[in-house]
């Protein structure tokens, strides 16, 4: 039986990945909303064929796009997934159980979202993860309106972590890491570059790569991925250093390079 929640997913050119996401939540909700910003690979037709309700909305940044998607949902309780995220059966069961006796006791619930390397079918041993709020009552909290701050604003209200996991296939390939993070950089440049000191950006540029590499390889345990983890940490650190360079160029009035892939 379905539970009284809407599931919303924002997309652009996700035909190769969204099928697994929709299959994982089939039967959980009677209102699965895909908000597409102009796919050219057949994402729209695939989503409709798999039972989603399709809505078109031109891309306006992560926070505003997700706020639009919230408004398109029919239920007050909403679950946000990305098209590259696949909820596992234990988590789907936990969400169903949460609504067995009516509305849940809290307004916000966090999901355990676990990284999967490009080309692999499941997370590595001791994989890194994040636990953002993704299941929530939209009458109480909404996504941030920031272009890049992709999070639910909960006002400090209590939340709980649900059992189970979401497997996150964030990058299609190692080359995709740089292209995808460059897309974030463009939005951050639009939103934040004017508030950053050119001197501080220049200083940060010199230390960004080693700091980010240490953060991902050690702090987020990509050393458990061996050579693949080493390359993953390198590619992410390099892309994040390039982000600072893009912001510095914008602050100094130099044109930034455009990137199609988000």
Task: Record the SSE blueprint.
Elements: E1 5-11, H1 18-24, E2 31-36, H2 43-49, E3 53-56, H3 62-72, E4 77-80, E5 85-87, H4 89-98, E6 108-110, E7 113-115, E8 129-130, E9 133-137, E10 142-143, E11 152-153, E12 160-161, E13 166-168, H5 174-192, H6 198-219, H7 226-251
Parallel strand pairs: 1-2, 1-4, 2-3, 6-12, 7-13
Antiparallel strand pairs: 4-9, 5-13, 6-9, 7-8, 10-11
Q: Can you describe what's shown?
A:
- With 262 residues, this protein is α/β, with parallel strands linked by helices.
- The protein has helices at 18-24, 43-49, 62-72, 89-98, 174-192, 198-219, 226-251, and strands at residues 5-11, 31-36, 53-56, 77-80, 85-87, 108-110, 113-115, 129-130, 133-137, 142-143, 152-153, 160-161, 166-168.
- The protein folds into 2 domains: 5-168, Spore Coat Polysaccharide Biosynthesis Protein SpsA, Chain A (Alpha-Beta Complex), CATH 3.90.550; 174-251, no CATH class.
- The chain is globular and about 55 Å long.
- It is 39% helix and 18% strand.
- The chain has a 7-stranded mixed β-sheet, with helices on both faces.
């Amino acid at each position: 039986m379905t539970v009284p929640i809407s599931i919303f997913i924002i997309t652009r050119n996700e035909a190769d990945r969204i099928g697994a996401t929709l299959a994982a939540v089939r039967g959980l909700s009677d209102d699965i909303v895909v908000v597409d910003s102009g796919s050219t690979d057949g994402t729209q037709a695939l989503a409709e064929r798999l039972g989603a309700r399709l809505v078109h909305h031109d891309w306006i940044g992560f926070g505003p796009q997700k706020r639009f998607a919230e408004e398109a949902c029919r239920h007050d309780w909403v679950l946000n997934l990305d098209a590259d995220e696949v909820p596992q059966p234990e988590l789907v069961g936990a969400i169903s159980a949460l609504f067995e006796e009516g509305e849940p006791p809290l307004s916000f619930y966090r999901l355990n979202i676990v990284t999967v390397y490009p080309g692999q079918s499941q997370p590595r041993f001791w994989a890194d993860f994040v636990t953002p709020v993704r299941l929530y009552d939209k009458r109480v909290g909404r996504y941030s309106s920031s272009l890049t701050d992709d999070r639910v604003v909960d006002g400090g209200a209590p939340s709980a972590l649900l059992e189970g996991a979401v497997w996150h296939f964030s990058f299609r390939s190692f080359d995709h890491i740089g292209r995808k993070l460059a897309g974030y950089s463009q939005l951050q440049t639009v939103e934040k570059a004017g508030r950053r000191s050119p001197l501080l950006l220049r200083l940060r540029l010199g230390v960004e790569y080693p700091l980010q590499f240490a953060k991902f390889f050690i702090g987020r345990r990509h050393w458990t991925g061996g050579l693949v983890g080493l390359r993953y940490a390198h590619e992410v650190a390099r892309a994040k250093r390039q982000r600072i360079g893009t912001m510095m160029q914008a602050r100094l009035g130099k044109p930034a390079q455009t990137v199609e892939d988000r």
